[in-house]
Design a protein that fits this description.
Length: 98
């Protein structure tokens, strides 16, 4: 079993809804059509959620950011905060960190 510090940064950027979504994809043998049925939503809705998850993982993989910055970026990708707010928070965090 992995220890927390051994987890890849992309996993740490996920929230509980992302993890549940990944679990549902696995349970449904990777079929987004079946996942859409399980969530009782349309296929395009699931495809959009899946694409956002891919974006979040890609952003985390290509970044050397710390956990806080990755979390702010993930919130922006998930539309939980707007990109301007995310940018402002990250800039202020980096300024205070120096």
């Amino acid at each position: 079993m992995l220890k927390y510090e051994e987890l890849p940064s992309w996993i740490l950027s996920l929230d509980i809804t992302d993890i549940s979504f990944i679990k549902n994809i696995i349970i449904n043998n990777g079929s987004l059509k079946d996942v859409a049925k399980a969530y009782d939503v349309s296929y395009p809705t699931i495809r959009l959620r899946f694409d956002k998850l891919i974006d979040k993982i890609n952003e985390s993989d290509k970044s050397n950011d710390d956990a806080y910055t990755l979390k702010i970026k993930a919130l922006a990708i998930d539309d939980k905060i707007d990109f301007d707010t995310a940018k402002e928070l990250i800039q202020e965090y980096r300024r205070l960190k120096k």
